[in-house]
Amino acid sequence: MSRPGTSTASGPASGTSRRGLLALGGAALAGTAAVGLAGCSDDDKPAKAAAPADRVPFYGTHQAGIATPAQDRLAFATYDLTVSGTVAENRAALRQLLQQWTAAAAAMTQGKTVPGDNDNPAAPPADTGEAYGLSPANLTITLGLGGSLFDKRFGLAGKRPAALADLPKLPPENLDPERSGGDLAIQACADDPIVAFHVIRNLARIGRGTVVMRWSQLGFGNATGNGGGKETPRNLMGFKDGTRNIPGDDTSLMDGHVWVGDETDQPWMRGGSYLVARRIRMRIEAWDRDFLQDQENVFGRAKYTGAPLTGAKETDQPDFAKKAAGGDPVIPADAHIRLAAHENNGGVRILRRGYSFTDGIVPATGELDAGLFFIAYQKDPRTQFIALQRKLGAHDALNEYIQHVGSGLFACPPGARAAGTGWAQELLA
Ligand SMILES: C=CC1=C(C)c2cc3[nH]c(cc4nc(cc5[nH]c(cc1n2)c(C)c5CCC(=O)O)C(CCC(=O)O)=C4C)c(C)c3C=C
Ligand SMILES: [Fe+2]
């Protein structure tokens, strides 16, 4: 992440400190050359400004961070608006916040500091600084709007999509209200943990006086440099997780299951998606005492290869009809994949984008507070996540080892189309 005005293709601008110069990594320097050339002569410009490999375009039809291949790290946070004015004043404050957040997000994803950074020794810097000198590491920043935003405060009740109805109770959940809900949500994903964290911190800082952070969650996958991107990542139960996920580059599946289309009752959501987040604790100690065959029966897949119990390779299609010699199905009736598979749910699919988490221990029990921060994107949670979770909650063998302890549902509007446009502009017009 480079500071504005401090570097060009030909070298640092006047006033760059030696410390700032040293901090500029090669990727950040190259990226700045591509995006921040104001004041350079034509000779200074690269022949062709190819998109650098470490950054994901911010502007577009859809928000980045949904179809984007999952990065190594997650910083997720929800925020509540603290406004107390008239509807018009509150709406104006929300509009201004989202404009500032959009500009900051656009800058950070392209390796720049949040706008307004300065060298004034008498003022706090606009950017908190922990990502100076780092590349954006494929940072994506995705905004979600919670159902509570559509109450009386902003006059938005008539614009609440039916699909954003509050999630019903989904037993056997045991939700902590302090890890649930929120007016706004930010999903920041990057291949560097500090770059992702830097986002949720700086957006809180920009919004001071208008928003407060409600809860947050850090998550991790496996590092890109350690097989990430080639191997299906494993969850903390040791199983490959994501084998039969929707591939983000399959436009037909994305249009069919993930992107909101003309079917919506709220045109401002066209091109958007609905994010369900569930903090799911795993009873890791109990799981680690379970024998291998039972663990594999719980999922319906082999632990090491990831193959369905009816196949030999991870990519083999599960055969849900196959019976063992005694007549029982090879993939048990309560196996997670049997219950969740689209073949057994009228074609229903979701895009999963979860991350592992570990947050010390649960004081009451001394057990690890660890598990899966489950994130799923879909066109309509009523017919997708909720329908699937009702079935899993009632029958899944995995329930013995997990508990849903946090929750959120957010409408992710379409992408900001071009510089100068803000997130959710159509909603707030
Ligand atoms: C409501 C939706 C789902 C929840 C909640 C959920 C929790 C959860 N899942 C795993 C581990 C695995 N899930 C796998 C597959 C899978 N899971 C869901 C949905 C939910 N999972 C779906 C739709 C699927 C695909 C099923 C299929 O089509 O075969 C797998 C298998 C590998 C894979 O395909 O990804 C694993 C492993 C955990 C640990 C968990 C809660 C902690
Ligand atoms: Fe699952």
From TrEMBL:
<dbReference type="InterPro" id="IPR006313">
    <property type="entry name" value="EfeB/EfeN"/>
</dbReference>
<keyword id="KW-0732">Signal</keyword>
<feature type="domain" description="Dyp-type peroxidase C-terminal">
    <location>
        <begin position="232"/>
        <end position="416"/>
    </location>
</feature>
<keyword id="KW-0560">Oxidoreductase</keyword>
<dbReference type="InterPro" id="IPR006314">
    <property type="entry name" value="Dyp_peroxidase"/>
</dbReference>
<keyword id="KW-0349">Heme</keyword>
<feature type="compositionally biased region" description="Low complexity">
    <location>
        <begin position="117"/>
        <end position="127"/>
    </location>
</feature>
<comment type="function">
    <text>Involved in the recovery of exogenous heme iron. Extracts iron from heme while preserving the protoporphyrin ring intact.</text>
</comment>
<feature type="region of interest" description="Disordered">
    <location>
        <begin position="109"/>
        <end position="131"/>
    </location>
</feature>
<keyword id="KW-0479">Metal-binding</keyword>
<dbReference type="InterPro" id="IPR011008">
    <property type="entry name" value="Dimeric_a/b-barrel"/>
</dbReference>
<keyword id="KW-0456">Lyase</keyword>
<protein>
    <recommendedName>
        <fullName>Deferrochelatase</fullName>
        <ecNumber>1.11.1.-</ecNumber>
    </recommendedName>
</protein>
<keyword id="KW-0575">Peroxidase</keyword>
<dbReference type="InterPro" id="IPR006311">
    <property type="entry name" value="TAT_signal"/>
</dbReference>
<comment type="similarity">
    <text>Belongs to the DyP-type peroxidase family.</text>
</comment>
<keyword id="KW-0408">Iron</keyword>
<dbReference type="InterPro" id="IPR048328">
    <property type="entry name" value="Dyp_perox_C"/>
</dbReference>
<dbReference type="Pfam" id="PF04261">
    <property type="entry name" value="Dyp_perox_N"/>
</dbReference>
<dbReference type="Pfam" id="PF20628">
    <property type="entry name" value="Dyp_perox_C"/>
</dbReference>
<dbReference type="InterPro" id="IPR048327">
    <property type="entry name" value="Dyp_perox_N"/>
</dbReference>
<feature type="domain" description="Dyp-type peroxidase N-terminal">
    <location>
        <begin position="63"/>
        <end position="220"/>
    </location>
</feature>
